[in-house]
Every structure is written in structure tokens, then in C-alpha cells.
């Protein structure tokens, strides 16, 4: 089969579509014949040599895919050859085939095209596990999503709105109309506006009950300032650095909390539990049309370098898909 290799880490041209050996399924795994994968920010870091795959994971990039089951391990029940699926991966999505633990498979939601289903697993699992399972966002609460136009952001805005929360999102101005269409009631241009002031103005001075943050260090203090009493800040990205100053007095006065999580490095059993939760609680919202995959564009897998350049520039809205003929 072919896969995207990274013989020497570096810029987008480090990605090489080359012949490699095919995977075989372990006892609890299936092999998927991949029709599409999607670009995640983490793939850019892996390409640059800053984010090596966890032990045991495929060396090729790609944290999610959609395709058809091509082979089933001896211990797998409930899935069969020929079934269309999408999957959360620890790596290996930029390829024609991948082996994945059966616990990380999801059916393609009714009404979603097979290729587009590749846009769902990573964002659904990340957003649900942080916003719902960890931060316990409730109906009537306020959710602030940083990076609303990202793959993660476009999903978080929709999930928040579908759960009955009021959703605020930060993004460059050119993405605001599309964020409103997805359910954001307040959009904040972080390049010219102070998001703390904008959040306070939009919430009558209360602040956000939950903040999903992809910026990290440089936003830490201001994120705490933007939290409501009892608020929960969840950091999932460090685009603004890994260090910041935390005013514990401010946190204490608000009885607020700060958490940070990563999905890729979790053990398979934890990933399987998240996938089960997503199937039970999020998939029905996709089937009903309350949440839809947001796809910026599709490119053939062999043009992964071009896809990385687009995502690196931030020009995209939602997900960039990589397809296999
Ligand atoms: N911890 C986890 O388990 C986990 C899992 C998945 C993803 N993530 C993280 O989540 C983030 C999003 O991932 P993705 O793949 O969806 O990324 P993406 O599609 O590449 O989007 C990144 C976006 O960040 C926005 N941005 C940059 N600086 C910003 C700022 N200061 N304020 C607000 N927005 C800003 C940009 O939007 P504009 O065009 O509006 O500037 C850019 O489009 C990444 O940091 C990624 O590492 C974490």
C-alpha cells in the first residue's frame, strides 16, 4: 500500500507518498481500507519532528479516517468486512490502510457521506470528552470557544449550541458569518478585540461557564478573568506557548477550575470509553442534523503537502480532508 512517510522532518515537502508494507490486524483490531483522512494541527507538529507518535502507534501521520473494513482480528465481534466506518486513530490515517483497535471504530452516521465522516472522530472525541464529560457544560450555560474556525472550534460551537448553551467564539473576522451560521451568538475578533471585555459584555458581566482553549500559556490569565463564578477552563492546545501565570487568588475567588488534557496519548481503553460516549451522546445529534461535518476542502492524499500549507496558513474553516482514490 501507499502511505505518507516523513523520512526527514521539516516543512510540508517532507511529506512523501510512498510504498510501505500493509498492516495486519491484531486480535482486537480491524484493518480499514481508507477512503479519507483529515488534517489535524498535531500532524503539522509531527511533520516538523515535534510530536512523535506514542509507543506502538503507526509511524505515519493521521489521527482519524473513514473507509471500509477490509479485515477483522480473531477477537473482534460486532464489526464485519465490508462495513463502512470511521475511526479515531493514534496515527496512520495518511495511508491506504490502517489497523485500529475495534473500540475506536464508529459507524458512519446516517445522512453523512463516507468521505465526510473522516472529519468527525478526532473533533467529536476531543470536544465531547472535554466540554461535556470533563467540564460538564449544561443547557443554559455559556461556552466560550477559542479558535472557533478551527476543526475543533467548528465542532465545539455546534455541540455547545445543540446542548442548549449560549456559544461565544473567537476567530478572525472573515470567519464570523460562518460561525454565526453554526450557532455562535457572539463572535469576537481576537486580533482587534479584547476577548475578556467582549465576553463580559455578552454575559452581563457574569463571564463564561466553560472555556475551551487552544491557545494556552499566553491566554491563561485572561481566560481566568473571563470565567464566571464556578467556571471551568479546559486547555487542549498550546498555540500561545506552554507557560503562563496563574493567579490562584482569582481562581479561588471564583471557585473556578483549570484542566488540561491530551487525547492521543491516552491508553486504548480510555479512548474506547470516549468513543462509546461519543456514539451514545453525539452521534444522535449528527443523525438529527443538529451537528454536521464542516469541510473546507478535499485534496488527494498525494497532495498532503498542499493541505498542510493551507492549514498552516489558517485560511481554512473547519476540516481539510485527504482522499484516497
Ligand atoms: N489536547 C487534545 O487532545 C487535542 C486534540 C485535537 C486538537 N487539539 C488542539 O486544538 C487546536 C485546534 O486543532 P485543529 O486541528 O482544529 O486546528 P486548526 O484547524 O489548524 O485551527 C487552528 C486555528 O487556531 C486559530 N487561532 C490561532 N491563534 C488564535 C488565537 N490567539 N485566538 C483564537 N484563535 C486562534 C486560527 O484561527 P483564525 O484563522 O481565526 O486565526 C486557526 O485556524 C490545536 O491547538 C490542536 O493542537 C488538541
Automatic annotation (TrEMBL):
Asked if the record carries the keyword DNA-binding, the reply is no
Q: SUPFAM superfamilies of this UniProt entry?
A: GroES-like (SSF50129), NAD(P)-binding Rossmann-fold domains (SSF51735)
One Pfam entry name: ADH_zinc_N_2
Q: Name all Enoyl reductase (ER) domain ranges.
A: 10-322
Tell me the CDD domains matching this sequence. Answer: p53_inducible_oxidoreductase
**Where does the source fall among the domains of life?**
Bacteria
Cited InterPro entries:
ADH-like_N, ER, GroES-like_sf, NAD(P)-bd_dom_sf, Quinone_OxRdtase_PIG3
Q: Which SMART domains match?
A: PKS_ER (SM00829)
User: What PANTHER family does this protein's entry cite?
Assistant: OS02G0805600 PROTEIN, QUINONE OXIDOREDUCTASE PIG3-RELATED
User: In its UniProt entry, what is this protein called?
Assistant: NAD(P)H-quinone oxidoreductase
Organism phylogeny? Bacteria, Bacillati, Actinomycetota, Actinomycetes, Micromonosporales
